[in-house]
Amino acid sequence: MEFQNQKFCQSCGMPMEGAQYGTEADGGLSPDYCSYCYENGKFTADVTMDQMIDFCAKPMADATGMTADEAKAQMAGFFPQLKRWK
């Protein structure tokens, strides 16, 4: 998913920037996932979408000034559109 030319990790929704891309099994950069979620062609954690939302709520709240509950609500609307959770 892109928003105004901004790419997001298709697992955790984090905005993507060059140094933050995960890697494929062949060592190339993943076009879809960040380095926190995806490494060597595999997801770094076997989690459900709800577990990912719970894990990401505090960092997102801290980064945006939202409450954790506001962050969770926003992610609950956004995550089902991400490639990993479709």
Q: Ranges with pLDDT <50 over ≥5 residues?
A: none
Structural class: alpha+beta
Tally of separate domains: 2
String of helices and strands: EEEEEEHH
State Rg.
Answer: 13 Å
> Averaged pLDDT, please?
92
Give me the number of helical elements: 2
SSE diagram, text form:
Layout: E1 2-3, E2 6-7, E3 21-23, E4 29-34, E5 38-39, E6 42-43, H1 49-64, H2 68-78
Antiparallel strand pairs: 1-2, 3-4, 5-6
Helix pairs in contact: 1-2
Verbal overview:
The protein has 86 residues and is of the alpha+beta class. It has two domains: 1-46, no CATH class; 47-79, no CATH class. Helix content is 31%, strand content 20%. It has two helices and six strands, in the order ββββββαα. It has helices at 49-64, 68-78, and strands at residues 2-3, 6-7, 21-23, 29-34, 38-39, 42-43. The strands form three sheets. It has a two-stranded antiparallel ribbon with strand order 1-2. The chain has a two-stranded antiparallel ribbon with strand order 3-4. The protein has a two-stranded antiparallel ribbon with strand order 5-6. Helix 1 (49-64) packs across helix 2 (68-78).
Characteristics of this structure?
single chain, 86 residues, alpha+beta, 2 domains, two-stranded antiparallel ribbon, 2 helices, 6 strands
Give me a quick take on this structure:
By secondary structure, the protein is an alpha+beta fold. The chain has helices at 49-64, 68-78, and strands at 2-3, 6-7, 21-23, 29-34, 38-39, 42-43. The longest helix is centred in the middle third of the chain and has 16 residues, at 49-64.
